[in-house]
Write a structure and sequence with these properties.
By secondary structure, the protein is of the alpha/beta class. Among the domains are: about 70 residues, Ubiquitin-like (UB roll), CATH 3.10.20.30; about 80 residues. It contains seven helices and twelve strands. It has a five-stranded mixed beta sheet, with no helix packed on it. Strands 7-6-8-9 form a four-stranded parallel beta sheet, with helices on both faces. Helix 2 packs across helix 5. The longest helix is centred in the last third of the chain and has 16 residues. The chain is elongated.
Length: about 250
C-alpha cells in the first residue's frame, strides 16, 4: 500500500467530509492511479480545479501519483492570471454563457434578468446538458456534482448556496461578473436579447391602461412577449439592487 498527502484549498473543501477540510491528510492507494482519478474519488469534480501542485511543482490531471507525494489542490481562478503554471482547463469563458440544470429554474430566470445568456428547460437530461455545453461553449451550473466529474465536461459549477437569491450572488462572485451585469436586456422566457419597440406597433399586445401610462416598451422577437416598466419591473429592480449590494 502507498500513501499520498492531500491539501485542498478554499471552496474545494465543500466537497470533503468535515474531518478532511482545510488540513493536510493522508490518503492510501493500492494501484497505479492518476491524480484526477484520486481527486474525484475523494468527491471533488475536476471542473472545480484549476491548479494542482505535487511536491511544489504544477502538474496536469494525467500525473501518476507516487508514494509519499504531497499534493495541493486549488479551485478555479476566474479573475486571476495563473498563466505561469500548469493550467488545468481550457481558458475560462470570458464571455459567460450558461446552461442550468432542471433544479435551478429560478436561478436561470435571475441570471437572464441580469443580462446573462442562460439556457434552461425543466426537462433537460444530463447527457443533453453536456452536449449543449460542449457545442455552445456553455458553463454547466448544477446541484449534481456527479455531472461535473464526467471527462467530457470542461466548464462547470456546483451550486453550494440554498436560495435562488444566494445562488445568483454565488455565480456572480464565482465568475467575477459584477461589471458585466446588464439588467433587463434579455427575455426572461426564452433568453434572447430584447429590442426597443414603438408603442403603436404593439398596441394590440398590451392592456389599455398600460398604453396610457407608459411610453417605453421592449419586445422579444422570438416569443413576442412585451416588457414595460410596471409593477413587476419595480419588484425586479429592487431585487437587482439587493444583489448588487451583496456584491
Amino acid at each position: 500500500m502507498k500513501t499520498a498527502y492531500f491539501r485542498f484549498y478554499e471552496e474545494l473543501n465543500d466537497f470533503l467530509p468535515p474531518e478532511k477540510r482545510k488540513i493536510k491528510f493522508e490518503h492510501p492507494f493500492f494501484c497505479r492511479a492518476s491524480v484526477k482519478d484520486i481527486i474525484e474519488s475523494l468527491g471533488v469534480p475536476h471542473t472545480e480545479i484549476d491548479l494542482i501542485l505535487v511536491n511544489g511543482k504544477s502538474v496536469d490531471f494525467s500525473y501518476i501519483i507516487n508514494d509519499k507525494d504531497e499534493i495541493s489542490v486549488y479551485p478555479v481562478f476566474e479573475s486571476f492570471d495563473i498563466s505561469e503554471v500548469q493550467h488545468l482547463r481550457p481558458q475560462p469563458l470570458r464571455e459567460p454563457k450558461f446552461i442550468v440544470d432542471v433544479h435551478l429554474g429560478r436561478l436561470a430566470k435571475n441570471l437572464r434578468m441580469l443580462g446573462f445568456d442562460t439556457l434552461y428547460k425543466n426537462n433537460t437530461k444530463d447527457n443533453e446538458l453536456i452536449d449543449i455545453s460542449q457545442k455552445e461553449r456553455r458553463t454547466i451550473i448544477t446541484k449534481n456534482r456527479e455531472i461535473l466529474k464526467r471527462n467530457n465536461v470542461t466548464h462547470g459549477c456546483w451550486i453550494r448556496s440554498k436560495t435562488p437569491e444566494d445562488n445568483v450572488i454565488e455565480i456572480i462572485k464565482r465568475f467575477d461578473l459584477k461589471n458585466q451585469i446588464r439588467e433587463f436586456t434579455r427575455c426572461l422566457g426564452c433568453n434572447l436579447l430584447l429590442k426597443k419597440t414603438e408603442k403603436e406597433k404593439i398596441a394590440d399586445k398590451i392592456p389599455a391602461k398600460v398604453e396610457l401610462r407608459h411610453n417605453e416598451f421592449f419586445i422579444c422577437n422570438h416569443c413576442n412577449k412585451v416588457y414595460w416598466k410596471g409593477s413587476h419591473y419595480n419588484k425586479m429592480s429592487a431585487l437587482v439592487q439587493k444583489i448588487l449590494r451583496a456584491l
